[in-house]
Backbone:
C-alpha cells in the first residue's frame, strides 16, 4: 500500500496530508498546543481540502488530530494581540474553511481521538461521519469567551442533537465525554482507542467502495435539507462581541474566570 505524504509547515505546526488506497488523510499536528489551529494553519487546511479533489482517485477524506487531541479549535492566544476587526476576519476565514470541508463532494470522516472543542467541535460536525474513542470530549465553551455561534454552526448542532440540547450545551459550557457524545448523536461510532485508527481506515475503505454517484446524491440531498431550515435570526451577527470578547480572551490568557459586566437588553 503506497502512501503519499505532504507537510504544510508553519513555524510551530503542521498540516499533514496523505493519500493511500483511495483515501485522503489530513492530520492536524500541533500537539504542544492541543492541536489548536493558528490563522496560518486554517489557511493551509483550506488549501489542502480544496486540493483533495485534484486526485480523482480520492474517494473519501479522513480528518484527524495527532497525539491525544482532535483539535482545541482556534488558537485564542493569537486573538489577544489583534484588533476586534482582525478577530472578526479571522473567524470569517475559519468558517469558510470549515464550509469547504463540509461541502466537499466526497464523504468525510472525522476521527475524534481526544478533545474537539470550540471551532474544533464545529470542524468535527462538518464531517459526514464521526468516529471517536473513549478519550473523545466535545464542547463549545463560547459563553466564557464572548464568541457567538453563527446560524451555520447552530444548524449543524441542532440537526444532530436538537434545539434544547444545543442551547444547554452553549448556555452551560458543559463538555460531553465520549459516551454522552455518542448517545446524543455527536459521534456515529465509539470504539476503543487502540482500534480507532484501524477502524477509521476500514470505514473509509468501505465507504470508498460504494457508488460515487449514490454518495454524492445523498450528501447533496441531506445538505439541502439542513440548509433549507428557516432562521428567525439575522445571519449577519458578528462572531465576536465588542464588549465581551476582549474580556473573555484576556481571562483565557490570564487563566482566570471572565468578569462580564455588560447587561443584555
Residues:
Amino acid at each position: 500500500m503506497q502512501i503519499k505524504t505532504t507537510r504544510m509547515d508553519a513555524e510551530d505546526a503542521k498540516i499533514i496530508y496523505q493519500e493511500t488506497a483511495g483515501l485522503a488523510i489530513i492530520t492536524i499536528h500541533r500537539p504542544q498546543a492541543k492541536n489548536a489551529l493558528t490563522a496560518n494553519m486554517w489557511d493551509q487546511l483550506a488549501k489542502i481540502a480544496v486540493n483533495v479533489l485534484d486526485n480523482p482517485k480520492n474517494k473519501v477524506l479522513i480528518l484527524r488530530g495527532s497525539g491525544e487531541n482532535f483539535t482545541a479549535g482556534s488558537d485564542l492566544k493569537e486573538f489577544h494581540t489583534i484588533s476586534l476587526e482582525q478577530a472578526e476576519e479571522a473567524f470569517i476565514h475559519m468558517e469558510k474553511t470549515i464550509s469547504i470541508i463540509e461541502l466537499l463532494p466526497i464523504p468525510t470522516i472525522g476521527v475524534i481521538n481526544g478533545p474537539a472543542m470550540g471551532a474544533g467541535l464545529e470542524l468535527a460536525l462538518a464531517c459526514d461521519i464521526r468516529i471517536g474513542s473513549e478519550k473523545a470530549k466535545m464542547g463549545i465553551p463560547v459563553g466564557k469567551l464572548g464568541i457567538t455561534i453563527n446560524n451555520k454552526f447552530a444548524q449543524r448542532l441542532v440537526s444532530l442533537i436538537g434545539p434544547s440540547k444545543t442551547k444547554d450545551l452553549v448556555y452551560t459550557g458543559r463538555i460531553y465525554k465520549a459516551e454522552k457524545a455518542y448517545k446524543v448523536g455527536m459521534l456515529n461510532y465509539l470504539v476503543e482507542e487502540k482500534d480507532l485508527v484501524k477502524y477509521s481506515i476500514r470505514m473509509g475503505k468501505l465507504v470508498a467502495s460504494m457508488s460515487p454517484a449514490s454518495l454524492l446524491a445523498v450528501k447533496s440531498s441531506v445538505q439541502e435539507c439542513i440548509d433549507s431550515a428557516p432562521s428567525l435570526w439575522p445571519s449577519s451577527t458578528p462572531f465576536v462581541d465588542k464588549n465581551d470578547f476582549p474580556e473573555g480572551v484576556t481571562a483565557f490568557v490570564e487563566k482566570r474566570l471572565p468578569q462580564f459586566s455588560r447587561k443584555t437588553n
Remarks:
- The first strand starts at residue 4 and ends at 9.
- The chain is about 40% helix and 20% strand.
- The two ends are 61 Å apart (CA to CA).
